[in-house]
Amino acid sequence: MMQRRLLPGWVGLILLFVLAAALSVAVGPGGFSGTNLSAVMNLRLLRLALGIIAGGVLAVVGASLQGLLRNPLADPFTMGVASGAALGASLTLVLGRTAGAFAPVGGFAGALVTMLVVYALARVRGRVTATGLVLAGVIMSFLFSSLVMLAMILGRRTLGEAVYMMMGHLGAVFTGTTVWLFGVVAVLSVAGCAWLFSMSRSLDIMSSGEEAAETLGVDTQRVTKTVFVISSVLVGTVVSFTGAISFVGLIVPHLVRMLFGPEHRRVLPGSFVAGAGILLFSDVLARNVVPGGLPLSIVTALVGVPFFIYLLRSRL
Amino acid sequence: MNAIELSDLAFGYSERLLFDGFSLDIAAGEFLGVIGPNGAGKSTLLKLVAGLLRPSRGSIRIRERDLDGLGRREIARTVGVVLQENPFAFDYSVSDVVMMGRNAYMGRFQSPGKHDREAVSSALEFVDALFLRDKRINSISAGERQRVVLARALAQEPGILMLDEATSHLDIAHQQLIARILLELNRQGKTVVFLSHDLNLAALYCSRVLLLDRGKVVACDVPERVITTELIRSVYGVEPIVTRHPESGRPQVMLPGERHQTPVSKP
After folding, report:
1. What is the Cα–Cα distance from A241 to A262, expressed in whole angstroms?
2. Number of domains observed in the structure of chain A
3. Is residue A14 part of a domain?
4. Which of A87, A151, B9, B82 qualifies as a FRET site for A212, CA 20 to 30 Å off?
5. What CATH number did the domain enclosing A248 receive?
């Protein structure tokens, strides 16, 4: 029965993605004609690339964390990891004089520290409870959002910049250096997602609990550490370009599981494609509905919060 | 040959040691029942042997090799474990769950081969659950799920099987089914370690019974010498009635009939 739904599922996901990518390139305040079309296209293609990497990474990390922690509410945003990355990136922007070249490193450090703190807070007697994880994540998010604001104000940045850092956007202004930097991050992102994919079987087995997984030959401590570090690298570096985007990493894996079943070898690649598509759609809405554009999390939260409530009511 | 050798083990969850100088040999091919009150250390013993917990002192040898020198995957190929609780966070198919038992034989990038699929089918067939293979693990009954988890352990092709309360949530028909499966596995040469609160089931099926109390071996012998009025009374603090099973002659334990100790029965 699962086999029959595989092909239509993939076709649907890829269609969604292609449609979103086409819209993302074709629709925008600059229109699709005129003398400076090639300049506009350059901007839009970069935006497209950023959207694909960000959406894919957030969804793949969300799926991996949900599997690892056996927790349907885990995701970079609900765990506060995205906000931690935003704080790390903001600090390097404000403190450094190198035009943001170290922002991805700051983002990674912020993400990793948050991941470890939230995990430690949520782990009671060897078990990470779903609600504990989200509570710890929300509290850290509050703290980090305030600190991002503080850092931005003290660093004499604009409020707009602070808002985009906390709520996400794909309008990163690329300079010569940051385009190269983004290239490196993109390669790193794909490699990181592939590494997570290579751990699919271990993640599957860990869904029956850490002890059971160990009796089946899985080194659960090593898997946990690896997933945490890779997730931090992925989310940290991506957030340093886009800011913290809500709910993509939470919703997408659930949708893909409904389509493909729970096996990570299908959920992870499916999440990358679906995450990229859904983020691009959200971005098309965010920048075309209101003149001047909206932060991405406004759009993703409007869809994400009802879904989160549904998960809270039905799955826990 | 001994399947499992524990010598001079020490272990505690806190400052207070649960096991202190604990030694035990389990012979290859035996069907050992492990009984004892809550907190006696049955599950802890299983977790030590499975490498889930590390002793603070002493040595654990499995098939004459030090547990310390064995990797997780090697342990998984030698010891199959059925834990007390088996929650599944996601709704995998039954055959996917049993295939997880093949993990220790597969490389990281390897997908299941012919032998892996055969091992899964024959494990499911052995526990009479082949018809469940396409069902979802969270949609089958407790008895069926227990068989599937046992099949997953069998797919590991281990020489030693350890089960923690494998029959406790099951009706008597399923209890009998699981016990018969274990007996058959034992006849085929597997060492079976069966942790249970069910004294009667342990007495009926096991070749030897280990009675544990607060981390100490009270007795370890054939059921007739372990499940006695004196030992059960002293360890559990109840006044048991120990009778003989009418067919096998094995000891069976009953609680006194308190509801009926009315004046009628007074002499």
Report:
1. 31
2. 1
3. no
4. B9
5. 1.10.3470.10
